[in-house]
C-alpha cells in the first residue's frame, strides 16, 4: 500500500488513522459481529455512534444548547432549497455573491421568493470578498446568506458581514471544523461533510432552535422540513449510517489533535508555507487578494496554460494528486484540509521550487 | 472476528466477500493511493466506478435503453415527494395502501394534489395484498402507486395491479434485486439500497425517459427534479460515492452468483425452509396470507408477548440478531435478504424447533 498526497477539493483526504480503524472494523464493529454498514439505525450500537458523534461535534465547535445538530442527506445543494423553504416567512432574503456556490444558492432561493444580491465580487472573478460593513439590508429580509469559504476561488470571509441584526445563514462546507467558530453569531451553519470532515453523502446543519418550526413554505417536502429531522434526532428515515460513523471517527481524531484550535494552528502553518512560496516565486502566483485568502483552498497559476498543464501532469507523476484547478477556472488549486499533513505541503512546495528552476525562462 | 447471522430489516446483512474487498481497499483503492472515500467524484477512477455500477445493474435487471438509472440521496422517503412533484401533471394519482410506507407516500402526495386511495388492506393489519384486478382508476390519474414488498408486514405483490393503462410507480426497497423483474411494465421503479443492496444513504430510481421533463410542479427543489439528476448522470453535485462503490461490488457479487434468477432460486429455497417450519409449528405461526407472503421479510408470532420477548432474547444470545418485529407491530420478523446464507435460515429454524420443544405447554 502506498498513499499519495491528495490535494482534491472534495471528496478529499481523510486522516489515515481514521481509515485504518474503519478498515479494521469493516466486517465486525467492536465485536458485535457485523459491519456498521449492516447495522439497524434503530440499534443500540448505532444509537451510541450517532449520539457520540453529535456530542463530539458539540464539544469541538462549542455549540450552544439552543442549537440543533442535524445529519441530513442531499448535500449543500439541497440545503439551497431547504434554507428558503424553512426560513422565508417574508419571502425575501439577501445573498452575498462570492462564487459559484453562493450563486447557486441565490438562484435556488429565487424559486421561493425575492432573493436580493447584497454584494458581489463577480467583477474580478470572485478573487476577493466584498466589503460587507454596510450592505443594503432591508427590514423585511428573513436572513442574510453567505458561502463562508469559496472552494473554487480560494477566498474566505475573515470578518462576518454586518447583517444589521438579521439572521446569518452560512454554508461552511469547505472550512468546516478548520478553526474555532462562534456558533452564536449564526442562525444556521451548514456544510457538506465531503470536503473537510468525512465521506460524501451528508450535510450537517446546525440550526438555532427557534428557527425550526412547522411554518415552512407550502409544498415543502417532509424530508426538507428541518422540524421533521429535529423532532426525530435525524432518524426520521434511515440516515447515511456509514458516513455518520466515519465523521464520528474524524471528530475523535480532531479532539485527539488539539481540537479546532489545534487545527487552526496547523492549518495556518500549512497555508503560510504555500502562500510564502507563492509570494516569492517568479513563476507562480496566487490569484486571491491577500487579506481574503482561504486557509483551505489555494488557487495559483503560472500565467501560461501549457505550463500549468505540464505542472499538473508532472506533479501527479510525483505523487501529488488533484492539483488541477476547477474546471470553470483553470490553473492549479491545492486544497489543504485538516487531514493534509504538513509534509504534504512541504513536498508540494519543494516540487514547485524544482519545477520553477527548470521552467523559468 | 466472528460474524453473527443478522436478520435486520435494514440496514441489513451484506455479502461477506463484498465487505472483505472493501476492507482490503479502504486505504488504497486498486493502487491509486487513496480511499474511494477520498476520491474526487469527477476523477477518472470514480467515473469507472459509477459507470460500471450502472452498467452492471442494467445487465442484472435487463433495464431497457429508454430508462434512466439515477443514484439519489434522501431515501425512499424523499422520493415520496419527488414522485408527485415530477409526475403530477393532472394533480391526481391513485395509491394502493398495503402498509406504513405506502401510506406515507400517499400522505406526502396529498401535499401536491389529489391522492386517491384505490385499495387498502388496513382492515386486517396489512396482512394481505388487496385484489387489484379492477380498481377505481380514473382517466385523469397521472399514475398508480404501490409499495411492492412491505417490509413491516411481510407481504408482496405477486401480480402487479391492473393499472388500466396508467403509469405504474413502484417502491421496491425491500425486494430490490431479489428476483427477475420486467422493468418495461413500470414507469418508475425505485428503492432505498439499505435493505437488499448496500449501505444506507442512497436510493436508485429507474425512470422511463419520457417521464423525465422540466414540467415539474412549481417550487420543486432543483435536487428533487429527476431531470437535474438525469442530465448530469447523477453527478449534479457530489453523490454518495462510497455507497455507490459498495453497491457496485454487490452488483458484481450478484452477477457472480447467478444474477437475479440465481437469487430468486436461493431466496425461494430460504423462504420455503422458514415458511414450511411455520406452517407445521405448534408454537409459531406466520402472520401473512399464504399467497401474499414475501420472500424477504417473514413476520411470525407465538401469540404470547412474553414468549416472543423470551425468543428474541435467547435467539440473540445464540448469534441470531435482530429478530424483533417492527416497533409498530411486535412479535418477530426474520429478514432474509440476498446476502443471508441458507445456513443462517437453517440455524434459525433449528433454533426455533429447539425453542418450541422447550416452551410448548
In short:
2 copies of one chain form a homodimer. Chain A is α/β, with parallel strands linked by helices and 361 residues long. Chain A is built from 9 helices and 14 strands.
What does this protein look like?
- The structure is a homodimer of 361-residue chains.
- Chain A has 2 domains: 240 residues, Type I PLP-dependent aspartate aminotransferase-like (Major domain) (Aspartate Aminotransferase, domain 2, 3-Layer(aba) Sandwich), CATH 3.40.640; 101 residues, Alpha-Beta Complex (Aspartate Aminotransferase, domain 1), CATH 3.90.1150.
- The first copy, chain A, contains 9 helices and 14 strands.
- The model of chain A has no long low-confidence stretch (mean pLDDT 97).
- The interface between A and B is large, with 72 and 72 residues.
**Helical region count of chain A?**
9
Strand-pairing-aware structural class of chain A? alpha/beta
| Low confidence ranges of chain A | none
In the CATH hierarchy, the third-tier topology of the largest domain in chain A is known as: Aspartate Aminotransferase, domain 2
Give the end-to-end Cα distance of chain A, rounded to a whole number of Å: 39 Å
Structural shape of chain A: globular
| Number of self-contained structural domains of chain A | 2
CATH architecture verdict of the largest domain in chain A: 3-Layer(aba) Sandwich
pLDDT average of chain A, as an integer? 97
Subunit arrangement of the protein = homodimer
Q: How big is the Rg of chain A?
A: 21 Å
Largest interface: A-B, 72 and 72 residues
- Major β-sheet annotation of chain A: 7 strands, mixed
In CATH's first tier, which class of the largest domain in chain A applies?
Answer: Alpha Beta
Beta-strand proportion of chain A: 15-25%
Number of strands of chain A: 14
| Secondary-structure element string of chain A | EHHEHEHEEEEEEEHHHEEHEEH
The side-by-side strand order for the widest beta sheet of chain A comes to 2-10-9-8-5-3-4
Fourth-level CATH superfamily of the largest domain in chain A: Type I PLP-dependent aspartate aminotransferase-like (Major domain)
Percentage of residues in helical conformation of chain A = 25-40%
